[in-house]
Amino acid sequence: MSIVGAGGASASASADKTLSGSCSSDPKGYSGSARYYYNSAGSDVFTKFTYTIGGRAGSKTDVAIDVYSDKNNAVDKWHGGWGTDSAKVGTKSTTVHIISPAKDKVYVKFWVRWDLPGLDPTCSFQTKRI
Question: What is the pLDDT of residues 27-48, one digit of tens each?
Answer without folding.
Answer: 556 666 667 655 557 888 888 8
